[in-house]
Inverse folding.
């Protein structure tokens, strides 16, 4: 494995199979190149433009983007048939499913090779057509934005929100944003801010940008809970009623069913596939998953 940095200083660290370098020429023997830089289209395009002259003609080129249009990420790459999306979920060690996203130019050979490579890592490839790219991330984003909207309108704390959300999935809504980091989270919600859930995504993206301007960045450098304690999460709760956690959980389940229904009804993926992927990726509660598959809700 080779890891390449972006600054001009070259620092190499050799382990059993890892080389860290800022010299693109070390990529010359790579069979699979995976980009994982900032979730910014121009930055990703720059990376692929810079490595183009160093990699083999048959090297598969993958982007770990979680929200950008894949057809726009590789404009300067010769041989678009070898380009593909390869999206790992956080935390990578605990999440078996990996989204594999092809687009019009991606060849079947490239898709098959990447699926085999993912399987060889003891992970489960989930191939998605362009209309369903980032399906799991989009569903997760809709749940998080729904939880944020509930927070704004109800007399409830960040901690109470996350405790309720953990009854549905592995991590709390705000806990997930804190773990990913506010910069990346803001980029994802901004890139998703067209079409369905547009208003919710834009609102949360703006709040994440605002928090960063105030010095809160997530990942141990200022969380949503910290911002709440410091009194910078301005809101005007309209609902003071009890059973808040129960109402939030019902709301999230309704949102989840609506999101799953959209992709399934559009014939983009099977109900069983998406539910299995959600169990793997976000730790979806298995009893609720059984209800979805049995359509007993």
């Amino acid at each position: 494995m080779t890891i390449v940095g972006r600054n001009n200083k070259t620092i190499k660290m050799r382990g059993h199979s890892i080389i860290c370098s800022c010299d693109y020429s070390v990529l010359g023997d790579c069979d699979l190149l995976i980009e994982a830089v900032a979730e910014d289209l121009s930055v990703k395009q720059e990376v692929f433009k810079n490595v183009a002259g160093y990699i083999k003609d048959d090297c598969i080129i993958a982007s770990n983007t979680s929200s950008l249009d894949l057809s726009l990420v590789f404009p300067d790459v010769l041989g678009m048939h070898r380009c593909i999306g390869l999206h790992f979920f956080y935390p990578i060690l605990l999440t078996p499913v990996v989204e594999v996203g092809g687009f019009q130019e991606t060849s079947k050979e490239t898709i098959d090779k990447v699926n085999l490579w993912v399987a060889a890592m003891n992970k489960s490839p989930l191939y998605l057509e362009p209309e369903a790219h980032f399906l799991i991330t989009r569903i997760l984003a809709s749940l998080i934005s729904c939880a944020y909207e509930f927070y704004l309108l109800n007399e409830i704390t960040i901690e109470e929100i996350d405790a309720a959300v953990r009854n549905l999935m592995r991590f709390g809504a705000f806990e997930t944003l804190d773990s990913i980091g506010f910069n990346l989270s803001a980029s994802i919600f901004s890139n998703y801010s067209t079409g369905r859930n547009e208003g919710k995504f834009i609102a949360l993206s703006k709040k994440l940008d605002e928090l960063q301007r105030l010095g809160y960045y997530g990942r141990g450098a200022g969380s949503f809970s910290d911002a709440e304690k410091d009194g910078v999460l301005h809101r005007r709760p309209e609902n003071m009623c009890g059973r808040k956690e129960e109402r939030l959980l019902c709301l999230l389940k309704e949102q989840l069913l609506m999101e799953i229904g959209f992709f399934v009804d559009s014939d983009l993926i099977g109900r069983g596939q998406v539910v299995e992927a959600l169990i793997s990726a976000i730790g979806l509660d298995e009893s609720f998953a059984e209800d979805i598959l049995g359509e007993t809700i």
Q: What stands out?
A: The longest strand covers residues 83-88. The first helix runs from residue 41 to 51. The chain is about 45% helix and 10% strand. The two ends are 46 Å apart (CA to CA).
